[in-house]
Write a structure and sequence with these properties.
This protein is an all-alpha fold. It has one domain: 434 Repressor (Amino-terminal Domain) (Orthogonal Bundle), CATH 1.10.260.40. It has five helices and no strands. α2 packs across α3. The radius of gyration is 10 Å and the shape is globular.
């Protein structure tokens, strides 16, 4: 996958652990599967923008924070 997908995944993992959420907890709040969260965090998938916005909302950050 792309370097951008890996960076976004790293940022999601950072904010998730900062909020003390497990992948399963984040997945449940975002209405996604834990496996999908795992693939996102490892940069293995390109997600839809709606998914990015939902994850940002659940994590309490801006989309800009996730893509920087």
């Amino acid at each position: 996958m792309s370097e951008l997908a890996r960076k976004i995944g790293d940022n999601i993992r950072h904010y998730r652990t900062e909020k003390k959420l497990t992948q399963a907890q984040l997945a449940k709040k975002a209405k996604l599967s834990r496996g999908y969260i795992c693939r996102i965090e490892h940069g293995r998938v390109n997600m839809y923008l709606t998914t990015l916005f939902e994850l940002a909302k659940v994590l309490g950050v801006s989309c800009r924070d996730l893509v920087k």
